[in-house]
Structures are given as structure tokens and as C-alpha cells.
# Entry
Amino acid sequence: MPRLSTRGPRLSRTLLTGGLLLTLITAISFPAPSGWAASGPFADFAGAWSGTGTLRPSGGQAERIRCNATYRQRGSSEHQIDLQLRCASDSYNFDLVGEFSADDNNQISGRWTERSRNVGGTAVGNARGERLQLHIESSGFAATLVMLTRTRRQSVNIDSQGGGQTIKASITLSRN
# Structure
């Protein structure tokens, strides 16, 4: 009886293993197509949000505040977003609109306008994971805004100074 060579199957297994290893190395070494890229810092923002919080003016009583926000992504990017935010308490209200963009390093820049007071300015900051931090300012006004977004919930903390007054706000929004 003729002897069967085991060289053929062994060579096939070696080629198969080598081919799988080469495929794995190729997948790790080369960047994924742009459709597979990590999402931008505004990925979870789009849509309508509403909620309540607390407004604390310096030297005054804390007040409940109610807010509605709408975020609209610009273009097909999760790196650009437009914002409209309206909030009101018994003695204070604001109507804010803004346009914000993030670069590839999640550094954020933008412009904002508070429509009821006809004042506006710039915003700069960064995003890291679920946390977004912005410094916003105009002549005579500055604020730090820290936002945490987790799926359908956003917590927003604002610490502002301007016109001789400091105001702190803590707001929790839920996606409608």
C-alpha cells in the first residue's frame, strides 16, 4: 500500500494559520475606514431635552429652574452641533443659542448668544469621554460649564460671574 504524505495537510494548516495571522495583523495595523471611526463628542446630544435644577445667586435664595434644550447636529458630523437652551425660574430666565465644533482632539470652540439680553461671546473647552467642559465669556461676563452626558441623561453645572454677581446652577436634563 502506498504511503500517504502528511506534508500536504500540514502545509495547508500552516498556510491557513499564517493567513489568519496576517489578516489579524493587517486589521490591527491599518486604520479602520472612516465609517468605523470613533464617534464625536456630540454623538449623544441630538434631540430635545428637558429638566429641572437649582439656581443659586450669590447672597440670594436658591430657586428651582426649568429648562428645555434642543441640539441639532450640523451636517453628517458628530463634531458640530447647534444648541438652543431656554431656562426660567421665578425671577430669572435666559434664552441661549450657540454653534459649537470639536476638532480631532475633541478641543471645542464656538459662539453663543443670549437672545433676551442681546449679549454673546465665545466658548472654548474640551471633551473627554462623557464629560464636556467649556469656558464661555463675553465683555463683562464669564462662566464655566461642566456637562456629563450618559445616554438619555445630562447633568449640567454652571458657575458664572458677571455684573458683580455670581450665579451657580445645577440642572438635570432627560431626552424627550
About this structure: Residues 1-37 have pLDDT under 50 and may be disordered. DSSP finds one helix and ten strands in the chain. Strands lie at 47-57, 63-73, 80-88, 93-102, 107-114, 119-128, 131-138, 141-150, 153-162, 165-175. The CA atoms of residues 31 and 37 lie 9 Å apart.
